[in-house]
Amino acid sequence: METIKYIRVSATSNCNVKCWYCFNERQSFNRLTLGDLKSFEWLVNTLVSEYATEIIRFTGGEPLENPHICELIKITKNTGIKKVGLTTNGKILHNFANKLITSGVDDIAVHLYELDLNHVNEKRIIDSIKWISDTFKNVKFNIVVTMRNLKYMEKIIDFSIQNNVNLLLLDLLQAGFTNEVFEENFCSLNGVRELLLSRGLTEVVENDNSKIYKKTNNNSGIKLVEHYADYSEKNSYCTKNLPFHPILLTPDFNFSICTHFGGRSFSIADAVKKQDKNILKNAVYDFKAELSHCKDCSRYTVLK
């Protein structure tokens, strides 16, 4: 049986912030929102029963811009999915607190976009981290570390260590940038790693490009995710090597096979509209075949 363990669902392409690196990536902002709940329910039920799907994470754009987001989460939970996640910038999270808690979402990842603004209010960011951590269970906070926000990392990291906050720190991926802009903003995570070790945290290797740093006898930690196996050659790690390769579902029912370089998309709209498992099976076969000989991967990535 073909398996698709992990699906990232773009609940909408709309977003209420304009992170400078996101808008430089090779993605289109065509104002699509997932609103066909019945078709989505059929699809998720089929993914669970036919393809052993275990994890679904709602992303965007900003998923909370989709007025049906809590319904989509409830539908997903009712299909038997083992884990339902949500990635948000947190800007309007306070409007959804009670509904999200009752929807059954298992974990929330909050991107700290305010660290990239021209005028950074560190107190406001830390107060926001406190409120979100106190309100929701299983929360982590994501930061793309760049030369623009590096000076704020030490304070955020120390606060996270002292208050058992889960952080996910990533380096910048060159996806659409000119070389000049990328080189100006890219920041190696080596300095952050040294900072974490100097705080007495223990390094735990998760996979090729991911390491977790934590205190003894503590479940919370700070994860570093590096995109580059060889930065000098711009060779990036490939998500094909992860335990669950993420497939992206767009709001108009397309599967995209790569979260790094965009990759080809395969429409499953006809399968969903007709609720036809055979049409879906053919689409899955096609994108799995494309994934196995991805030209972007052979050109840009190091497979280990």
In short:
The chain has helices at 37-51, 69-78, 97-103, 122-135, 153-162, 179-185, 190-198, 269-274, 277-292, 295-300; strands at residues 6-10, 55-59, 83-88, 107-111, 139-144, 166-170, 202-207, 210-214, 222-225, 228-230, 235-236, 246-249, 254-256, 265-267. With 304 residues, it is of the alpha/beta class.
Write the layout of secondary structure elements.
Blueprint (H helix, E strand, L loop, with lengths): L5 E5 L26 H15 L3 E5 L9 H10 L4 E6 L8 H7 L3 E5 L10 H14 L3 E6 L8 H10 L3 E5 L8 H7 L4 H9 L3 E6 L2 E5 L7 E4 L2 E3 L4 E2 L9 E4 L4 E3 L8 E3 L1 H6 L2 H16 L2 H6 L4
Parallel strand pairs: 1-2, 1-12, 2-3, 3-4, 4-5, 5-6, 6-9
Antiparallel strand pairs: 7-8, 8-9, 10-11, 12-13, 13-14
Q: Tell me the count of domains.
A: 2
Largest sheet: 12 strands, mixed
What's the Cα radius of gyration? 19 Å
**CATH-level-2 architecture of the largest domain:** Alpha-Beta Barrel
Form type? globular
Amount of beta strand? 15-25%
Q: Low-confidence parts, pLDDT < 50 over ≥5 residues? A: 298-304
Query: Can you write the helix and strand succession as a string?
Result: EHEHEHEHEHEHHEEEEEEEEHHH
CATH topology of the largest domain: TIM Barrel
| CATH fourth-tier homologous superfamily of the largest domain | Aldolase class I
Question: What does this molecule look like?
Answer:
The chain is α/β, with parallel strands linked by helices. The chain has 2 domains: 1-106 and 238-304, TIM Barrel (Alpha-Beta Barrel), CATH 3.20.20.70; 112-225, no CATH class. It is built from 10 helices and 14 strands. The strands form 2 sheets. The protein has a 12-stranded mixed sheet with strand order 7-8-9-6-5-4-3-2-1-12-13-14. Mean pLDDT is 87; it is low at 298-304.
